[in-house]
Amino acid sequence: MTTDDLSRNRDNFCYRHPDRQSFVLCQRCLRTICPECQTPAAVGVICPECLADQQRAASPAQRKAERRWSRRPQAVTIGDTRPLVTYAIIGITALAYLVTLIPGVGETIRSALLFYAPLLYPQLFGAFEPWRLLTVSLVHGNFVHLALNMLALLMIGRSLEPLLGRWRFLTLYLLSALGGSVAVVILSFGTPVVGASGAIFGLFGALLVIGRHIGANIGGIAIVLGINLVIGFVPGFNVSWQAHVGGLVVGLLVSFIYTRTRSPRQRGLQIALLAVVAAALVALLLVPVAAPGVVLG
Questions:
Q1: Staple 58 to which of 62, 189, 222, 297, CB 3.0 to 4.6 Å?
Q2: Any idea which fold 84-290 has?
């Protein structure tokens, strides 16, 4: 991080600890606060100064109720910043992989979860299995494939989830996975696809956008992303570059929305824009239907 970056992005550092980057605002004064300065409130978190003002403004009845129902005031509890969603996704994905190894039923479950675009269109096989758009991220070709994706998820999620918050991080992951599947529908219709790479590339894209927004040095991230993206186009690697590109584009878009709707007053707008992104992805699934001679004919 350069001196110029710091000077241009001071509002993205904790006002009490200027050396700590953060993406979280106090819900009352809207100043940036780091995890150490965050105290859970009714909605979101508040900073120590707003907490003190809130405690001074409490009525005698409120103070009495606080003493009665808690051993110590709840307001002094520091928020849990562990990347629990990241851990949960890794656990669920690993469990799904182990289930697919069970003799007799594993292959059946695997084939029911992997993504195969024609199964979204009843006119082809008489089946409509939309869950495959997301469950593809639970299926992996082998242990190495699983390990590489989950390692990337762990490394990115440990940094990104505390910045975004759990629900925003989960939304980003799911929309990126959906974006990867939609790209496969449009660009490689008849190809069966497995893996969470679309979602992982979405997280990479978000790390680029948010890292740049808070003034971090994103050169290393950009190089790693570029290398992984190029590998998808190298013959012989058997990688779905379509899912990578789709997930990356959606990750960039969703994270851009996050950076432009940080204020609590913009929460409704943020949710509406995310809903528009999801609706647009679903609408893109109609592209093969609009060109039956190309795909469905």
A1: 62
A2: Rhomboid-like fold (1.20.1540)
